Inverse folding.
C-alpha cells in the first residue's frame, strides 16, 4: 500500500509541470478573457464589471454582424469546394498509385501544407495579382483584354484557403480510405453493383468519418485564420479575426476583442456538436 | 478511367505547386518586381537577404524560440504522459482533457488571452513571451503523441527496472525515453515545424525582437519584392527539410 501511495505522489509530481503550465498560460487567460468580455471602455480605460453591452453590440452593429456573416460564408464555401476536390486526389493516391510509392505521393501532394500561412498567402498574391502569373498568362493567350481583379477580393481569399484545405482534407480522407478492406468493394461488385453504386453506397458511407473530421478541421482553422483574408482579401470585406485584430490594434478595445473571440469560440463549439457524431479526432 | 486518374493527379499537383513554383522562380528574378516577364537569373536577392541584419536576427530568433519552446513542450508532455499512462489517478480523464484542450482553440484566442495576462501582470513582451505561447500550442501535441505511443510492452520494461531498484529518473532516461525515441522525435520535429511557421502568437506577443514570420509580415507592407520571395523560399526550404527528416527518421519503419 505504501508503494501505491509513493507511486501516486510521484505521478502527481511528473504531471504537475504540464498541468501548472496549462492552467497558468491557457485556462487562466481564457477565463480572464471571458470576464474581460463583460467589461467596457471609458475613453482609454477598461471598466470592469458585468456589462453585456459588447455582446448586444456584436449582434446589432451591421459591421460586426457583417464580419460574422462573411466569416461563416467564406468558411462554408471553402469547405464545400475543398471536399469534392480532395476526395478524388486521396482516392487516386490510395487506389491507383502503387503501394510502395503511396507515402511518397502523399508526402509530395501535401508538401506546401507545411509552409507558413504568411509565405503561402504571399505566394498566391504573386499568382493572382494584377500583374501576376494568371493575368499575364490569360492576357498573353488573348482570353481576356483587361487584367482580372482577383487579389484583394473574396475570390482570392477563397482560392488561398481552398489550396490549403485540399491538402488537409487529402490527408484525413486518405487515412480513412487506406484502412478500408478491399473486400467491401469486391463484395459490392459480386452483388452486381457498378462502379458508381459501389462508391455511392459502400465506399463513401464508410469514409464519412474521414470526410467529417477533415471538414471540421477545415471549419475551425478557416474561421479562425487572420492571415489569409488579411493578405489576399484586403481590407474591403472584414472577417471575424480581422475585426478582432482591428480592435486590438487601432482602438485598444480589449473587452470588445474578447467578446468577439468568445463569439468565435461559440461558433466553433456549435460546429463541434453538429459534427461530433461522425468525428474521429483521435484517428487523424 | 486510368487516364482520367492520372490527368486529375497532374492537375491537382499543378494547383498545389503553382504558388510555390512562382515563389521560388521569381526569387531568382533579375529585376525589381517578382512578376512576369522573367528577366533572367540572379542570386542577388539571396545575397541581399542573407546580408540583412534584421532578417538574420529574426531567423536566429525563430530558431531559438522553436528549439527551446519545443524542448520544453516535449519534456512537460512526456512527463505528463508517463504519469497518466502509469498510475490511475482520480480524474485522469479530466486531466487528459485539460492537457489536450488548447489544441481545440484557435491561435488568435490563445494569443489574445496571453496578451491580456501579460498586460495585467506587467510582463514585457519579448521572445520569452512568444515562446511561452508556443509551448501552450505544442504541449498538447507532444502529450498526445507520446501518450498514444505508450504500450504494455513498455510498461513491463519500466516495472522490471523499478523492481531491480532503479530510481524513477533512471527509469525515465534509460528505459522510457529510449523506447519511445521515434514518437519523441516525431513530437519534437512537428513542434519545431509549427513554432517555426507560427505567425499570430509571435506577432501579438513580441515587441522589439521578432521571429521570421513577423519580419516577413512587415516586409509585405512595402509591396511585392523578389527579396520577400527569397526569404519565403528559405523558410519553405527549412520547413520541407524538417518534414523530410521526420519522414525519414520516424515513419520509415512503419508499414
Amino acid at each position: 500500500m505504501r508503494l501505491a501511495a509513493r507511486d501516486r505522489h510521484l505521478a502527481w509530481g511528473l504531471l504537475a509541470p504540464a498541468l501548472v503550465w496549462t492552467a497558468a498560460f491557457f485556462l487562466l487567460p481564457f477565463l480572464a478573457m471571458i470576464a474581460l468580455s463583460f467589461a467596457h471602455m471609458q475613453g482609454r480605460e477598461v471598466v470592469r464589471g458585468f456589462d453585456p453591452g459588447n455582446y448586444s453590440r456584436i449582434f446589432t452593429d451591421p459591421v460586426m454582424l457583417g464580419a460574422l456573416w462573411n466569416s461563416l460564408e467564406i468558411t462554408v464555401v471553402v469547405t464545400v469546394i475543398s471536399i469534392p476536390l480532395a476526395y478524388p486526389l486521396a482516392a487516386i493516391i490510395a487506389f491507383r498509385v502503387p503501394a510502395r510509392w503511396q507515402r511518397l505521393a502523399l508526402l509530395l501532394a501535401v508538401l506546401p501544407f507545411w509552409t507558413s500561412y504568411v509565405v503561402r498567402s504571399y505566394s498566391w498574391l504573386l499568382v493572382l495579382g494584377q500583374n501576376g502569373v494568371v493575368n499575364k498568362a490569360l492576357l498573353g493567350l488573348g482570353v481576356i483584354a483587361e487584367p482580372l481583379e482577383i487579389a484583394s477580393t473574396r475570390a482570392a481569399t477563397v482560392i488561398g484557403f481552398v489550396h490549403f484545405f485540399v491538402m488537409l482534407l487529402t490527408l484525413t480522407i486518405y487515412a480513412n480510405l487506406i484502412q478500408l478492406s478491399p473486400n467491401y468493394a469486391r463484395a459490392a461488385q459480386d452483388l452486381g453493383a457498378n462502379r458508381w453504386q459501389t462508391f455511392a453506397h459502400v465506399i463513401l458511407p464508410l469514409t464519412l468519418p474521414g470526410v467529417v473530421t477533415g471538414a471540421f478541421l477545415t471549419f475551425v482553422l478557416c474561421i479562425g485564420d487572420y492571415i489569409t483574408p488579411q493578405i489576399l482579401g484586403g481590407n474591403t470585406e472584414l472577417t471575424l479575426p480581422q475585426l478582432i485584430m482591428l480592435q486590438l490594434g487601432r482602438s485598444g478595445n480589449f473587452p470588445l476583442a474578447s467578446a468577439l473571440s468568445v463569439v468565435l469560440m461559440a461558433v466553433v463549439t456549435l460546429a463541434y456538436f453538429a459534427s461530433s457524431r461522425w468525428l474521429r479526432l483521435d484517428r487523424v | 478511367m486510368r487516364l482520367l486518374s492520372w490527368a486529375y493527379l497532374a492537375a491537382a499537383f499543378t494547383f498545389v505547386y503553382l504558388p510555390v513554383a512562382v515563389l521560388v522562380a521569381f526569387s531568382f528574378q533579375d529585376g525589381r518586381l517578382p512578376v512576369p516577364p522573367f528577366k533572367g537569373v540572379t542570386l542577388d536577392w539571396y545575397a541581399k537577404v542573407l546580408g540583412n541584419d534584421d532578417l538574420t536576427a529574426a531567423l536566429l530568433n525563430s530558431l531559438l524560440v522553436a528549439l527551446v519552446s519545443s524542448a520544453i513542450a516535449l519534456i512537460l508532455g512526456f512527463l505528463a504522459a508517463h504519469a497518466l499512462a502509469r498510475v490511475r489517478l482520480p480524474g485522469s480523464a479530466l486531466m487528459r482533457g485539460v492537457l489536450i484542450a488548447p489544441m481545440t482553440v484557435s491561435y488568435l484566442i490563445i494569443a489574445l488571452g496571453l496578451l491580456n495576462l501579460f498586460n495585467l501582470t506587467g510582463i514585457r513582451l519579448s521572445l520569452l513571451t512568444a515562446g511561452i505561447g508556443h509551448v501552450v500550442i505544442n504541449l498538447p501535441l507532444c502529450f498526445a503523441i507520446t501518450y498514444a505511443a505508450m504500450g504494455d510492452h513498455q510498461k513491463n520494461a519500466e516495472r522490471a527496472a523499478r523492481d531491480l531498484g532503479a530510481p524513477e529518473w533512471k527509469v525515465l532516461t534509460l528505459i522510457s525515453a529510449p523506447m519511445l525515441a521515434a514518437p519523441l522525435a516525431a513530437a519534437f520535429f512537428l513542434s519545431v515545424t509549427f513554432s517555426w511557421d507560427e505567425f499570430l502568437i509571435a506577432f501579438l506577443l513580441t515587441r522589439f525582437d521578432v521571429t521570421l514570420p513577423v519580419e516577413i509580415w512587415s516586409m509585405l507592407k512595402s509591396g511585392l519584392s523578389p527579396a520577400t520571395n527569397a526569404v519565403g523560399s528559405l523558410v519553405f526550404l527549412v520547413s520541407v527539410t524538417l518534414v523530410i527528416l521526420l519522414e525519414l527518421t520516424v515513419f520509415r519503419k512503419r508499414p
